[in-house]
Amino acid sequence: MEGSAEETSKEVSALSLEPEVRSKNALKKELKNKQRDEERKAKQAATMSRPQVQKPQAADDEDMDPTQYFENRLKALAAQKSAGINPYPHKFHVSLSILEYIDKYKGLSNGEHLEDVEINLAGRIMNKRSSSSKLFFYDLHGDGAKVQVMADARTSVLDEAEFSKFHSGVKRGDIVGVIGYPGLEYFTCY
């Protein structure tokens, strides 16, 4: 063992203490890597300092036990009532039923929207999909028919934070009234 330790110490002392000479390309590569690391750290620090936006929990509601889902819905309604919001307004004036809407606007060409016409529809939400935090699609059922409702933050009267908060509270099975303009593919609400 002592022999191997002595050999190792001789090998270490034989190593040259002169600085290693590197090529110009290796130095450039090293400098570039250092800059990338600094940029990553700065970007990470910037994202950590930004406030996090709360994302909707639609997927969690689907996986819940029915009794737990019911209890959560009751808590949400109680919170709305305590905030002074009436979750069950007295009246919503409906200008067309869903069947009348489909019959009246089925002649529109693909992608056409009548933004100068305002329509009020009501029905039960049977499906909710979100494309992003600023774009939601709902399947509104009523009178044995279905219409797709598109809720876009750009056309909404609410600002982005209110829009996100409002639509995170809308659940499958809710009976709602929507105001918007007609199109062939979907009804756009605002």
Q: Which structural class fits the helix and strand makeup?
A: alpha+beta
Average pLDDT across residues?
81
Helical stretch tally = 6
What is the architecture of the domain at 92-189 at the second tier of CATH?
Beta Barrel
Q: Which stretches are low in confidence, meaning pLDDT under 50 for 5 or more residues running?
A: 55-59
The helix content, as a percent range, equals 40-55%
The name of the CATH topology of the domain at 92-189 is: OB fold (Dihydrolipoamide Acetyltransferase, E2P)
Distance between the termini: 83 Å
Rg, alpha carbons: 31 Å
Report the sheet with the most strands, covering strand number, pairing sense and barrel closure. 5 strands, mixed, barrel
Order of helices and strands: HHHHHEEEHEE
Arrangement of strands in the largest sheet: 1-2-3-5-4
CATH class of the domain at 92-189: Mainly Beta
Strand content: 15-25%
The CATH superfamily title of the domain at 92-189:
Nucleic acid-binding proteins
Q: Sum up the overall morphology in one term.
A: elongated
The count of β-strands is: 5
